[in-house]
Design brief:
Elements: H1 6-13, H2 20-65, E1 69-74, E2 79-82, H3 84-90, H4 94-97, H5 102-105, H6 108-122, E3 128-135, E4 141-152, E5 158-166, H7 168-182, H8 192-209, E6 213-221, H9 223-230, H10 232-249, E7 255-260, E8 263-268, H11 275-290, E9 300-308, H12 316-335
Antiparallel strand pairs: 1-2, 1-5, 3-4, 4-5, 6-8, 6-9, 7-8
């Protein structure tokens, strides 16, 4: 076996020499590749920033032209953005409102309620919808349909988004329709449906308070004769006068209704034992009105007054029926 000398062994393990120029070239190429990557990343960020900026401007233009009002608050309740409609509706300016809380912008009670609502929204995941009455810059109370929802941005920061649309006109139309459905068009009093809707819950509240009430059933005397002799226009005038008289005799808190034709009903809560006093006031008012020489027909009432003690259990329907029977006895007594 041939043995290598120590010098030969050293030569065998010695690495080949590296050309300094080639090493420098490799380093430059690596640096160039790194710079190319950084340039590509920067171009992407610029493009992304331009896209975000464009989208932001587009969204702002869209929201500023919308009929809705929109605003954003952070998790500390500070206003961070609102569309133009929001500022115009409430007569505010961005420089005076942005980065401020409701406590700095509105009254303490309203701000406290808003903060409780904000915390409730931040603690949930679903949108919350409500109908709210809020005054605008002119001091006009308007009805708003409001939707609030929680969300996060790309950095995980929490916000409360809110969008509201002015529902005042629709609410007014709905109220007009509702009033028409419960009102008598001739007298302006409640009709039977309106009387049931208002008197039934009031009866329940009076019983819970331990208060006595009176239910009056009133029927016009001789209306058919007026219609036959003077025409239905005169009869309608008598009905309107009767409605006016009932409004005068009873309190503003009493519930007065025309049930139909010549029949009226009144629910008078918190009357105690005033049945005789009510009958006396009604009789005197009818006499005073009938004494007026301008009135071409004698005005008369037959009345049934049904006391409602707090321990009674009859329904409103039963009380009306019983008061109707008492009225009928009063009318028969006059004929006798």
């Amino acid at each position: 076996m041939t043995r290598l000398s120590p010098a030969a062994l050293a030569d065998a393990h010695r690495l080949p020499a590296v050309d300094p120029a080639l090493a420098r070239l490799a380093a430059l190429e690596a640096e160039n590749a790194r710079l190319q990557l950084e340039l590509s990343a920067a171009e992407f960020r610029i493009a992304e920033s331009d896209l975000i900026r464009r989208d932001s401007l587009l969204l702002r233009a869209f929201m500023d032209r919308s009929d809705t009002i929109a605003w954003l608050k952070d998790d500390r309740g500070r206003l961070v953005w609102a569309n133009r409609n929001w500022f115009e509706r409430f007569g505010l300016h961005a420089i005076d409102t942005l980065d401020k809380t409701d406590f700095e912008l509105f009254g303490h009670d309203d701000a406290a309620r808003a903060r409780v609502q904000d915390l409730d929204i931040l603690g949930g995941h679903e949108p919350q919808r409500s109908v709210e009455i809020v005054q605008d810059a002119s001091g006009t109370a308007r009805c708003w349909q409001v939707t609030r929802f929680p969300f996060h941005d790309s950095l995980g920061r929490r916000y409360i988004g809110s969008i509201a649309s002015d529902d005042t006109e629709r609410a007014r139309q709905y109220e007009d329709i509702r009033q028409q459905s419960i009102s008598d068009p001739l007298t302006g009093l409640l009709n039977r449906r309106g009387f049931d809707l208002q008197a039934a819950p009031e009866l329940g509240r009076a019983r819970r308070r331990g208060a006595s009430c009176v239910l009056a059933f009133v029927d016009l005397d001789g209306l058919k004769g007026v219609n036959d002799r003077l025409g239905h226009a005169a009869g309608d005038a008598i009905i309107v006068l009767a409605a006016m008289l009932l409004r005068k005799v009873f309190r503003s808190t009493d519930i007065v209704a025309r049930l139909g034709g010549d029949e009226f009903a009144v629910f008078a809560p918190d009357t105690g034992a005033e049945v005789d006093a009510i009958r006396h006031r009604l009789t005197r008012a009818v006499e005073e009105l009938s004494a007026n020489p301008i009135l071409e027909a004698q005005l008369g009432f037959s009345v049934g007054l049904r006391p409602c003690p707090p321990d009674s259990s009859e329904s409103l329907e039963q009380l009306i029926a019983e008061a109707d029977q008492l009225m009928y006895r009063d009318k028969q007594g006059k004929r006798g």
